[in-house]
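A common beginner's mistake is to predict each chain separately and then try to dock the pieces by hand. The better habit, illustrated here, is to supply every component at once so that their relative placement is modeled jointly.
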Amino acid sequence: MHDLRRKLSDAGLRPTRQRLRLGWLLFGSGDRHVTAERLFEEALAARTPISLATVYNTLNQFTSAGLLREIAVDGAKTYFDTNLSEHQHFLTEEAQILIDLPQQLIDMSRLPEPPEGMEIARIDVVVRLRRKKV
Amino acid sequence: MHDLRRKLSDAGLRPTRQRLRLGWLLFGSGDRHVTAERLFEEALAARTPISLATVYNTLNQFTSAGLLREIAVDGAKTYFDTNLSEHQHFLTEEAQILIDLPQQLIDMSRLPEPPEGMEIARIDVVVRLRRKKV
DNA sequence: ATTTGTGCAAATCGTTTGCATCTGA
DNA sequence: TCAGATGCAAACGATTTGCACAAAT
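With all components supplied together, the output reads:
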């Protein structure tokens, strides 16, 4: 509880009602992958009066404060991940659900040389799944 | 030239003026990474009367016909790749330019077991680059 | 003649923003 | 008190779609 207030103020964010609520939903129960829309619905279901715009703003603020990580999945929607460690994802095509991959897939020893003057910022890996046809 | 007409009709697509033009721009000069907007500008520059909607439609048709591959980069824009082989990309953050990676990054021997009833459809890897700070 | 493609403008979808109003330190 | 947050609605940018017209088989 107080960790959360702490977490927010350490990040330079005022612990407002809605930020505490969203923080609680996000960080209260292990690793999570959420979209803005989803989190908005959860907040409403939890009787937290909040606007979708605030959910978007909050997710972005949490992300630049380093409390969340944005996940690069193509398509329209943006996902946010509470698991900040280096890891990758399964993505199920229909349900659009993300699952953490159990291990590193990248062979770091074979990382390519980036072009002159550039460095590697991040490597995104998404393993797309489809329903197995029988 | 006739390859292209051939390519289109093999794919069940009528070789119309605009499809031939776009096909020519796309497949006429090695591997390419394009957005709809970009290809639209090129077509106009090449004095091909075409509408942006048709460019979108055509890119999607080419993709479902297996002539193009969609690249999963997060963010708003969708990229299409004429290189159909298994490969990955560098992405420069500001310029939003894609570059083919010289080699496979994925350690295929360590591919994870997909969840029950699912199979791996595709693995997307994007190596994000940033300008090296001096 | 029939089917398929094209162009335009309007519609959609996720996300952002401007601005007036509220709220927490 | 007063900077910073919130909510709403309008703005946005990429993409899709509905429909009348045009072109290909």
